[in-house]
Amino acid sequence: MPETPEVAFNCSVENSTENGVKVTTVRCHGRLINQTAGEVRDIVKPLIPQGGIIVIDLNDVTFLDSLGLGTLVGLKVSAINEGYCQLRLENLTPRLQELLKLTNLTKLFGS
Q1: CB 27 within 8 A of CB 59
Q2: Which end of the chain is more exposed for a tag (fewer CB within 10 A), N or C?
């Protein structure tokens, strides 16, 4: 089945350093949903053991469903368990900020 525009999703990865610390920014574009959440997990999960800071930029995420949110929570928990990796969410839309509040995840992500 061909990919429909509503499900189109992609991530780009940029590496930099901030005060001598490795920073990897994963910019997500599109709908972070059931069919696309695996892509984020597959990109971010191998970065966690490398340490440093991982920033997931959600500025261009147009929709987030429960599986997408669950994937972000799972990645955050993995980063916490590794101990030497910080995972942050950045550029959340007001709608995503409200979703974190409604699900009591604001403290977990420090938003």
Answers
A1: yes
A2: N
CB atoms inside a 10 Å sphere around CB 18: 10
* pLDDT tens track for 8-48: 899 999 999 989 999 999 999 999 999 999 999 999 999 99
Q: Which residues pair with 85 in a beta bridge?
A: 52
Residues 6+ apart with CB under 8 A from 41: 71, 74, 75
Q: Please write the tens of the pLDDT for every residue from 55-107.
A: 999 999 999 999 999 999 999 999 999 888 999 999 999 989 999 999 999 99
Q: At what angle do helices 66-82 and 37-44 cross, to 10 degrees?
A: 10
Q: What does residue 59 show for φ and ψ, rounded to 5 degrees?
A: -55, -40
CATH code of 5-109, in short, is 3.30.750.24
Whether 4 has a pLDDT exceeding 60, the answer reads no
Q: What is the DSSP letter of 2?
A: P
